[in-house]
Amino acid sequence: MPYAGSLGIRRGTENWKPAADDRDRLPEKINVTGAEKFARSGRFMTQAKKLYANFPNNVWLASWAGDSRELEDIVSEFADLGQGGEYSGNIRVMSTDLVPDGIRILETIGFESPARVAAGDFVILHSIANVDRENLATPWMIFHAMFDDVGGAPADFIPSWDDLMGDMYALDKMKFSDGSPVDTSSTDDLGRIFTMGSARTGRLQGDGNAVAEALCQELLTKGGFRFMSDDLDDDSISIMEDLAEHVRTAADEFRSSTRGKLLTVSAS
């Protein structure tokens, strides 16, 4: 099913500051006007339609233009006060049933006509605050943000997450066919193995990012996750084959577990 549409954009509080006991959380660079302009753009819409057409459930986006920490605090208050039902996850990714709790949250924050959303749809409530290339909340990066966190949140909707974490650590043990080690901190090395856009353009770095990008490629492209094995030794090919198998399993779990869910994601 396709990208179902946008539930609108709600702006956060201007010059919002975290509570005094929460100042240790990293400050964020905010360009709300630029982020909101991008979220309303034809470029964003085109990307969302293309990528989310590969997802089986209707995907709705509800965008929060402001400091993601304020959004986290608002959604956490629903959980703490029992207003939003049962929550799972951590600060960066939180999930709850869409009906009735998720709809109530969306209505309270002020999103447009959440009654349009069907009980089996998937709604992503995500932050948009930056426009620099590394933090721009594109439709792809909104999904990436759900997986780019080893704090446990993905395990709530991907039961086999531990298998992917094992694969992540195994990536550091790989070698090229000439015997040289694969450096997962090297964009050049990962670009010789992975095939998604971030790898082809020299922006993929780190084993955790590699796993997150593999999941995005599996979920959001027609061809799914693909890798190049020509430069790898046999043991490393086996490691990548294991990753591919676990990515397919994790993607199936994610598709199933997000049906009828609201996920709140700190995307930028």
How does this model look, in words?
With about 270 residues, the protein is α/β, with parallel strands linked by helices. The chain folds into two domains: about 5-155 and about 255-265, no CATH class; about 160-255, no CATH class. The protein is about 40% helix and about 15% strand. The protein has ten helices and six strands; from the N terminus they run βααβαββαβααααααβ. The chain has helices at about 30-40, 40-50, 70-80, 100-110, 140-145, 160-170, 185-190, 195-200, 205-220, 235-255, and strands spanning about 5-10, 60-65, 90, 95, 120-130, 260-265. A six-stranded mixed beta sheet has the order 1-2-5-6-4-3, sandwiched between helices. A hairpin with a 3-residue loop joins strand 3 (about 90) and strand 4 (about 95). Helix 6 (about 160-170) crosses helix 9 (about 205-220) and helix 9 packs across helix 10. The longest helix has 24 residues, at about 235-255. It starts with a strand and ends with a strand. The model is unreliable at about 80-90 (pLDDT under 50).
